[in-house]
Amino acid sequence: MYLHNTYSSIYNSKSFHYKEVFVVTDSGNGTITGKSEDGRVLVFEAISDADPDTFVAQNYVKKVNGLA
């Protein structure tokens, strides 16, 4: 499975677009594992009590690491 993200931005009145491909290599047990084109491996895990409209990943990571 490939997930494509297309990013658009305007910088100094010039518009540019780029696409990033994420290849899913495994899924199961509540996680999805894959890698991006540059080889970075990412693991996603569902958080049952998270509200997708207000969830902030940085706050979550700080909390689970005792930094918040």
Report on the biggest sheet: 4 strands, antiparallel
Unreliable spans are none
Gross geometry? extended
**What's the alpha carbon Rg, rounded to whole Å?**
16 Å
State the share of residues found in helices, binned by percent: 10-25%
SSE order, as H and E? EEEEH
Whole-number tally of structural domains: 1
Strand order of the largest sheet: 1-2-3-4
Mean pLDDT: 78
Structural class estimated from helices and strands = mainly beta
Q: Could you give the distance between the termini? A: 35 Å
| Proportion in β-strands | over 45%
Counting DSSP E segments of at least 2 residues, the number of strands comes to 4
Number of helices: 1
Report on this model:
The chain is mostly beta strands. The protein has one domain. 12% of the residues lie in helices and 53% in strands. The chain is built from 1 helix and 4 strands; from the N terminus they run ββββα. A 4-stranded antiparallel beta sheet has the order 1-2-3-4, with no helix packed on it. A hairpin with a 2-residue loop joins β1 and β2 (14-28). The longest helix has 8 residues, at 57-64. It is extended. The N and C termini lie far apart (35 Å). The relative contact order is 0.14.
In short:
The chain is mostly beta strands and 68 residues long. It has one domain.
What keywords describe this structure?
68 residues; extended
